[in-house]
Write a structure and sequence with these properties.
Helix content: 40-55%
CATH architecture of the largest domain: 3-Layer(aba) Sandwich
Organism: Comamonas flocculans
Strand order of the largest sheet: 2-1-3-6-7
CATH superfamily of the largest domain: Response regulator
Distance between the termini: 39 Å
Keywords: DNA-binding, Phosphoprotein, Transcription, Transcription regulation, Two-component regulatory system
Structural class: alpha/beta
Order of helices and strands: EHEHEEEHEHEHHHHHH
GO molecular function, one term: DNA binding
CATH topology of the largest domain: Rossmann fold
Shape: globular
Protein name: Response regulator transcription factor
GO biological process, one term: phosphorelay signal transduction system
């Protein structure tokens, strides 16, 4: 039996994933968490072979959680299940130690395949992610400017370019508006941009939104 823990801050999403995994007789959900704090407590007593982890957690990004889990639970296979398109975060997640990347908009039954794949010791790659990986290996010198951004900086970039206000972004990421403003300033500096309009143009040209 494969023990799976779900970590997503939306209860409805967790329910949908749980119902999907229930169709596999050899998979059982041993626990659910809505934040990193809950996940850390859950992992102390609940068995976990595969962790299905959302990237957009309150207070702490999934990439940061990945780094912590590699130290505290190195044997746990981590499968990222995110609403973000593959071209934004998949390679980042894989480089950070994820064993696979699945998009929430994809066929739900792919999650069962993904869980089986990572349990076999292999990486779960969708055709889109496999192509991105191949492109990055073939043209490593063409690293885009936003590749230097941290996880929170990239999230801030995408959300601003999507038309969200700093106060809204702060609420979504469970951060203070001042902290989000700092991230915005760092993004502008690293990308050599001057304002939100240029930032939005950059995001559109690089297919981040």
């Amino acid at each position: 039996m494969i023990d799976v823990i779900l970590c997503d801050d939306h209860a409805l999403v967790r329910r949908g994933i749980r119902d999907t995994l229930a169709e596999a007789p050899d998979i059982r959900v041993s626990g659910e968490a809505g934040s990193y704090t809950e996940l850390r407590e859950l992992l102390r007593h609940a068995p976990c072979d595969v962790l299905l982890l959302d990237l957009n957690l309150p207070g702490r990004s999934g990439i940061e959680v990945l780094a912590s889990l590699q130290e505290s639970h190195p044997r746990t296979k981590v499968l990222i299940v995110s609403m973000y398109p593959e071209d934004q975060y998949a390679l980042r997640a894989l480089k950070a130690g994820a064993h696979g990347y699945a998009n929430k908009a994809a066929d739900p039954l792919q999650l069962i395949t993904a869980v089986h794949t990572v349990m076999q010791g292999r990486k779960y790659l969708t055709p889109e992610v496999a192509q991105l990986l191949a492109d990055s290996l073939a043209q490593p010198e063409r690293e885009l400017a936003h590749a230097q951004l941290s996880e929170r900086e990239l999230q801030t970039l995408v959300k601003i370019a999507s038309g969200k206000r700093l106060s809204d972004i702060a609420q979504e990421l469970v951060l203070s508006p001042k902290t989000v403003s700092v991230y915005r300033a760092r993004v502008l500096a690293k990308l050599g941009l001057s304002n939100n309009a240029e930032l939005t143009v950059y995001a559109i040209r690089n297919q981040l939104v």
